[in-house]
Description:
17% strand; Alanine dehydrogenase
Amino acid sequence: MIIGCPKEIKNNENRVALTPGGTLSLVGRGHTVYVQKGAGDGSGYTDADYAGAGAELLGTIEEVYAKSETIVKVKEPIASEYALIRKGQFLFTYFHFAGSRDLTEAMVKSKAICLAYETVEAPDGSLPLLVPMSEVAGRMAVQEGAKYLESPSGGRGILLGGVPGVMPANVLVLGGGIVGTEAAKMASGLNANVILMDISLVRLRHLAEIMPKNVTLIYSSEYNIRQQLSRVDLIIGAVLIPGAKAPHLITRQMLGEMKKGSVVIDVAVDQGGCIETCHPTTHEDPTYVVDGVIHYCVANMPGAVPFTSTLALTNATFPYLLQIAQKGWKQACADNAGLAKGLNVVEGEITYGPVAEEFKQMS
């Protein structure tokens, strides 16, 4: 198979989808690997590293797309890449289709095969290619929240963990999945008062066994969320419905109940966001203010820590990429039902239920 790894061109996206180690494994099995020059720079991998592993280096993203049967990326293609994608080409990356009509329409029109990291399933129903970046994003959300609570960043001037004699910050985490769990662990480890909400009593019971005493677990409902809004300093939105658009748990009207200078971090922004006033931002321009509340909605948070993120991601994605390379995507998906769940768009058809439902008028 001919596999191409282009350099990510989304704003401040410094991760890379294939390491020199992965390249060596693929080339050693007889596959051809094209890597765009500079693709690994942000993650600490040089062109010489890739060449030494057997990759052929290409100077432009256009060359990578033109010569490759399979494209492996980190983030979804952006508008300047749409025209480079051709019929029958296989793309393996994060897509988050439900959050972008333009991207969905472009991939349908291209008649490419789009296998999305975020909807690949393990036998137990978990999402193995979403987990590592969710772990990074959950932990980062607390770091960023703590920073933007500082006065120079426009925040209320609160130290997340407080000090003896002074109350710590109050943190509300919406969603008890991987992102929410990691965020709650980080915030509680910094001595904040944490409230973690979820709609699954089974999940809440499990979290009750592993969370420290400064994490309070509450069933998620509009009433219970409203009860906390006037008290909290930091909200972390961590809601996930696999492949589907996130529900708005905090509306514009509800936002007015929060204190001026408080902060919201919406990690679900890739999927439309769980806070109505959120829209995607970049690491270059990460925040904006609505009703006195600071919004941090960077859509590729792990891109800010590319060394950690690249290794965490490729540890999870490479075994699947190897299956695809060895068998071809059709046979790999036939043999692995969990991998097949990642097929979102196939040769002009939306094949993943939640995305099809979101854009049913296109089907």
